[in-house]
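Data deposition worksheet. Section B asks for the primary sequence of the deposited chain exactly as it was used as input, without tags or linkers unless they were present during the calculation. Section C holds the resulting structure in token form. Section D is free text for depositor observations; keep each observation to a single sentence. Incomplete worksheets are returned to the depositor.
Section A, Depositor: J.P.
Section B:
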Amino acid sequence: MHIRRPNPRSFLTAAFAAITLLLSACQTAPPKPLPAPELQLLESAALQIPGGCTASGSFVVAFTVAPSGQTSDIRPADAPVCVQQALTAWVASFRYAPLPRATPASIEWLMVTGKRGT
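Section C:
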């Protein structure tokens, strides 16, 4: 009686094909992130820059809008301390319509100076 040995190459090919098939079956597309809810600003205090505070350029303030509509985690841009404090107080005064979940947001403020009446 003659026992035939399996061909190692065909065994490896079959094993590789089986593993590839199993791995491809396990892969799923990542879930799409939920779109950010639309922000609706309901109220805001006036921005108050103290006299003598000098700055130029634009400043981005990042923050989070809580489901209640209040702002939190306010992160002002690198700016003079007086500008950071003014922008933080201003953004803290924002009130948005309630949201289904906390939503990251940002606002850019541009410092423009000029003579009155020009």
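Section D:
The mean pLDDT is 81.
The chain is about 25% helix and 25% strand.
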